[in-house]
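Lab notes, practical 5.
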Amino acid sequence: MDLPTLWFFIVGFLFVGYFVLDGFDFGVGMSLPFLGKDDTDRRVLINTIGPVWDLNETWVIVAGAALFAAFPEWYATLFSGFYLPLLLILLALILRGVSFEYRHQRPEKVWKARFDRMIVVGSAVPAFLWGVAFANIVAGVPLDANHDYIGTFFGLLNPYALLGGLTTLLLFFTHGVVFVALKTDGEIRGRARRLAVRAGALTIVVAASFLVWTSVAFGTPASILLSAGAAVVLIGSFLANLRGRERLAFGLMAATIGLAVLSLFLALFPGVMPASNDPANSLTIVNASSSQYTLEIMSWVALIFLPLILAYQGWTYWIFRKRVTREQIPAEAAH
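Output from the prediction step:
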């Protein structure tokens, strides 16, 4: 395997990590209106991701940095052409992070309610727009001979991309609700399990529709195989949740997201940004990658630091593995 191909899949791995980890963060944030019956419940929900949400978010920074260094042409085309949706994602992530830190600074219900709404919006917007962005990347967008995007913002909101956005929105929502069931106890755990069943049924229908559309229109044998695997694992997660096996359901949801994202990368390969107007203007791993020397240096850096990052992340989740309950919330936080 040559270095451009290797780095294409490393970038794919980083985005898989981001969507699996920050995906359930988004889902927990979106679940506040459905599972948070009072402020204590909402504190429980936020505390399930409190120790890890910012660490999960760093995956997208690493993925963006790897994309910039390994495929500068892809990075330039993507971030200039998709400037507005990516800016909206960035603003939503800032909004969500600020809300996590500030909602508990004052005891007034109105103050907390405003930041709770900001958490919901700051979770739903990225969850939707990431699907829109990746669907457009797979389907292709109009590019000129300099590989610059020549379409419009509303051109990105085509039916296929909107279905992709709805798919990631529902996948992340269900992923987050299953995580709540895994990390809580008592009444909120039961509500989360019931909500996961309802959301999971809808997610199966929407995700299957998107994966079938992708496979028929843009699929390769490898991507179709992974898409089928993602569908089977998603159904398995739904059945596991029905039986109350939350750990298995969460693991299978993570596998579903990972397989779905990898199927999109395989549908794209060896391209990185197809031109829908003229295939000659498309970006591939060959004409979008950095020099051989740059990729060699990056490979040594990744070999050293990526295992350390994974080890630290695993250690963090092990330390904060216990369930969060209402009894653990300080009494004054409930006012």
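Observations recorded by the TA: The longest helix spans residues 187-218. The longest strand covers residues 271-273.
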